[in-house]
Design brief:
heterotrimer; A alpha/beta; B alpha/beta; C alpha/beta; A: 12 helices; about 20% strand; C: alpha/beta; Rossmann fold; 3-stranded antiparallel β-sheet; 8 strands
Chain lengths: ~450, ~300, ~180
């Protein structure tokens, strides 16, 4: 099948492209990108663009052609969410790979990497294989993240090499930290052999013990146990030092505090190989969202204060935080409709991420270019998706519109306003504190695995 | 007058609300002094005690209060265990409502549970204690007791002593007494008093001798033995030695100071027997007043539900 | 625009007459007591008591009765009735009680007052003294002693104003619209 996207505002940060033009796709690969004006900035390592030739589409070899009019919309490399919980195997009542990937597509994501805290845990090659097999029918690409330790118990490392061969693109014990510093050190060292990042869920469990929201005046007045910001910062600091010691590849998941941003900024300045992600709820809501014991706003790490929001926005702006990921955590309605203490943490985030992130563009915190970096290019870079893979799973580069890369495209309308309706989410998880919010920039068209998905 | 159908906490009450309850409670205390202690006012209504935490005193108090108003009472004691997978909280509450409950009096170990039920149920929800959040009727009866004994609350120096951080009684009292204009002090070890307390207008003392100087009311809180193993204080002996209320320490308060305790007491640990049984103690009156206050709460809430 | 029906002198004369009637009908003041219904009847009960004392040179017990908790309209009223003082500091069992109220209207307050009294003891008899009877009874209740009978319509309101409440002694009638 051949797809022609016309007159869109093309943004490809991997090659500094920013202009109105056309994108030609053939057989699931980018065949050609043509920009109308020569306003594009200098490219990186790819060969130069062919010059703009008047008329004709050139080079179309298939008879089946689908044209998309992208006038007034932005065309960017398909968004990559490097932190989602697809819940399968084991928790299919919350979400399945099928429903989760459909939700991803709805949210504009063409690739997701799923965390291993399933049941059984993805700590061995056969679970990895199961996930990959299930994902073949999914609407978007699924790249599994393996656990760091067996059973996520924090004691023994998993067979990273074997799991990489089966398809894992990173390792994380997410949901839990690796409390034992020696094991974390070993993980960072050992993973170097395979060139894969260790994604750390930074939480000192002894400090966060039983906590259900951010610690402070509000937690005291609500009578809820608080989690101090230091519970995150202590582990961020520790992991950074271990990354420095081992020269391993560290990626810090769901950054939520001002203190963590500062630590990461300093570490980067020192040249430590560390990258970081944050989630839309950490720059959109404060702890006030739980004031009425609303479990939809119960999340781990918890929602924090205005100061933390400001620091995270600053961190996104100056590059301290590389990625916006969702930490999509769907839960069944009954699980959230209960005592605040006992409700599971998590927000179903795939379908609101782009809209919430667009607010950053509106506020002038990020340009669309930078947004595309945070949600596509940087995740691709961190997960090693910019270069072609030899595994059967990923054939071509992602996170870029270079010729020959996978035709994963997100086309978005940044003017249209949509009211969030949780009950209509594609995901099984309707647990969101953003129900009723009016957001701009809901992806209108997502192209992935050779299929086009459109929404009004 | 009350303007919401539920009593979830002192935080949600205005000063007018609180005074309304206290004034009405005075009327009911009179009723309790008569031969026939019952009035037909809420005849035909049904109150359900939904207690997820064991409690005899509070539950009995609510039960009696309801009966004095000619209301029918059902007691639902749910065994507490997060391990026991049984009916969900919401299902239990909806079942109770289906039985025709007009009042649901709930005690639970998780903060926010009464708020959740209030949203989902038509009945009037009364919070009898939710985790470490609030225990509003206790604070109301404490305020009633103080007002009765001292004639007012505004301007009084009131000291709360003990495990503030885990005490919903303390929190409700702090909110209530500060709203009514009292000067509240907290006394106890730093591990038992949250840092944030000073942000809400109370003064914190770690020395009981300093804290009790010239106070009008001393409110003792129960030391929960379960807290001992977790680093909050090294031993009950140490706690008692430093923060126990002894007759010598009580002398530092005003001559006409009163001593209160929500019960049950650990005699000899946070309060000496001599004081508990002494002339300054109003501990037993608190119990009687509790009945009047709970009757007042139900009476006033019944007026909101129309 | 309220219209004055009775002035201070009218009220005083009516109360004097009622005091005489009470003593006459009960053949003296033996075992007699007055209980005023909050709020309107309380002051009137005290006034009646002083008049009786003037005549008989002896005091009889006076009490006040709050009927809020015995009302029959609790589920339809807009808000809860405010509780007032019930102060009957004497044994009423075997006594002859004169219930005193300012205005007798539907009779429901009197019904509630009788139930309240029954919970305090077992009176020998209960008689009713009211300053104004404005008609429109909804229950089979009759006053034994009446200051003045005033036929009214349901769109009117009768109010007794007394010095004890800080106003001038008088009785006024006013059009207010349908009784709720």
């Amino acid at each position: 099948m051949t797809i022609l996207i016309q007159k869109g505002h093309i943004i490809d940060p991997s090659r500094g492209i920013d202009g109105i033009g056309d994108v030609l796709i053939e057989n699931g690969k980018i065949k050609e990108v043509r920009i109308q004006n020569t306003e594009y900035r200098s490219q990186k390592s790819n060969p130069p663009l062919p010059p703009f030739s008047k008329g004709g589409r050139g080079g179309i070899t298939n008879s089946e052609l689908k044209t998309i009019n992208a006038e007034g919309m932005f065309v960017i490399p398909g968004l990559i969410d490097m932190h989602v919980h697809l819940r399968e195997p084991g928790f299919e009542y919350k979400e399945t790979i099928k429903t989760g990937t459909a939700a991803a597509i709805r949210g504009g994501f063409t690739t997701v990497s799923c965390m291993p805290n399933t049941f059984p845990i993805n700590d061995n090659a056969s679970v990895t294989e199961f996930i990959i097999r299930k994902s073949l029918d999914g609407l978007c690409t699924v790249l599994p993240i393996g656990a760091i330790t067996k059973g996520q118990k924090g004691k023994e490392l998993v067979e990273m090499g074997t799991m990489k061969d089966e398809g894992c693109i990173a390792f994380s014990d997410d949901g839990l930290p690796v409390m034992n510093s020696l094991i974390m050190r070993r993980a960072l060292e050992y993973s170097k052999a395979f060139g894969l990042p260790i994604i750390s869920h930074c939480e000192d469990l002894t400090l966060s013990e039983d906590g259900v929201m951010s610690e402070g005046l509000l937690s005291m007045t609500l009578g809820l146990r608080g989690i101090p910001a230091e519970a995150e910062q202590i582990m961020v600091f520790r992991d950074i030092l271990l990354a420095e010691l081992t020269r391993g590849k560290l990626h810090i998941a769901h950054v939520s505090t001002e203190g963590s941003v500062k630590l990461i900024r300093d570490a980067k300045r020192r040249g430590v190989n560390v990258t970081a992600e944050t989630c839309p709820h950490y720059f959109s809501l404060t702890e006030d969202a739980v004031r009425n014991y609303d479990t939809n706003a119960k999340v781990n790490p918890p929602l924090r204060t205005k100061k933390d929001i400001e620091a995270i926005k600053e961190g996104l702006k100056d590059g301290t935080i590389d990625v916006i990921a969702t930490d999509h955590a769907p839960h069944h309605r009954d699980e959230k409709l209960r005592e605040f203490d006992l409700a599971p943490s998590g927000i179903s985030g795939l379908e609101t991420a782009l809209g919430l992130s667009m607010k950053l563009v509106d506020e002038g915190v990020l340009t669309i270019n930078q947004l595309a970096e945070k949600m596509s290019l940087n995740p691709a870079r961190i997960l090693g998706l910019l270069t072609p893979h030899l595994s059967s799973l990923i054939t071509g580069p992602k996170g870029t519109l270079a010729v020959g890369s996978d035709a994963d495209i997100t086309i978005l309308d940044t003017e249209k306003e949509v009211t969030v309706e949780a009950s209509k989410f594609v995901s099984k998880g309707k647990n969101t504190p953003f129900d009723g919010w009016v957001l701009k920039g809901v992806s209108l068209i997502t192209i992935s695995k050779g299929r086009i998905h459109e929404w009004q | 007058m009350l303007d919401k159908k539920d009593l979830l906490g002192i935080k949600e009450l205005s000063v007018e609300n609180i005074n309304s309850i206290l004034d009405t409670a005075a009327g009911f205390k009179d009723v309790l002094g008569r031969d026939i202690k019952k009035v037909p006012t809420l005849r035909g209504k049904t109150a359900v005690n939904l207690f997820f935490e064991p409690s005899t005193r509070t539950r009995t108090s609510f039960e009696l209060a309801a009966k004095r108003l000619s209301t029918d009472v059902i007691n639902f004691s749910v065994p507490t265990s997060s391990v026991v997978k049984g009916e969900s909280l919401i299902d239990t509450a909806l079942t109770v409502q289906a039985l025709g409950a007009d009042f649901i009096i709930i005690r639970h170990s998780s903060a926010g549970v009464p708020h959740l039920l209030a949203k989902k149920l038509r009945a009037s929800v009364i919070n009898a204690g939710d985790g470490t959040n609030e225990h509003p009727t206790q604070a109301l009866l404490d305020a009633f007791t103080i007002r009765e004994k001292k004639g007012r609350i505004e301007g009084l120096d009131i000291a709360l002593v003990g495990d503030i951080i885990h005490s919903r009684v303390a929190k409700s009292n702090i909110y209530g007494l500060t709203k009514l204009g009292a000067k509240v002090r907290l006394i106890g070890p730093p591990t038992l008093i949250p840092r944030e307390m000073e942000d809400i207008g109370v003064v914190v003392f770690h020395s009981i001798e300093e804290g009790l100087k010239d106070v009008d009311v001393v409110m003792m809180l129960r030391i929960q033995m379960e807290r001992q193993g977790k680093g909050f204080f090294p031993s009950t002996e140490e706690y008692s030695k430093n923060w126990g209320l002894t007759p010598e320490r009580l002398l530092l308060a005003k001559d006409d100071a009163i001593v209160m305790h929500p019960g049950p007491m650990n005699r000899g640990i946070e309060i000496s027997s001599e004081i508990a049984d002494g002339p300054k103690s109003v501990i037993l009156e608190q119990v009687t007043n509790g009945l009047a206050v709970r009757m007042a709460v139900m009476y006033l809430l019944a007026g909101v539900r129309k | 625009m309220p219209k004055e029906l009775f002035n201070k002198k009218d009220i005083d004369r009516a109360l004097t007459r009622m005091a005489h009637e009470i003593i006459e009908k009960n053949k003296g003041i033996d075992r007699l007591c007055l209980v005023g219904i909050q709020r309107g009847g309380v002051h009137l009960a005290r006034r009646l008591s002083s008049k009786i004392k003037e005549i008989e040179k002896k005091e009889i017990p006076v009490g006040s009765l709050d009927i809020a908790l015995y009302r029959d309209d609790l589920s339809i009223r807009k808000g809860q009735a405010v509780l007032r003082k019930t102060d009957v500091p004497f044994e009423i069992t075997d006594f002859k009680i004169i219930l005193v109220d300012d205005v007798l209207f539907t009779g429901r307050s009197i019904r509630a007052a009788m139930d309240a009294l029954m919970d305090l003891g077992r009176p020998a008899t209960i008689q009713l003294a009211v300053l104004i009877d404005r008609g429109h009874r909804e229950l089979p209740i009759k006053a034994d002693y009446v200051g003045k009978n005033i036929p009214t319509s349901l769109s009117e309101n009768v109010e007794v104003q007394l010095e004890e409440e800080g106003l001038e002694d008088r009785i006024i009638i006013e059009k207010v619209g349908m009784k709720e």
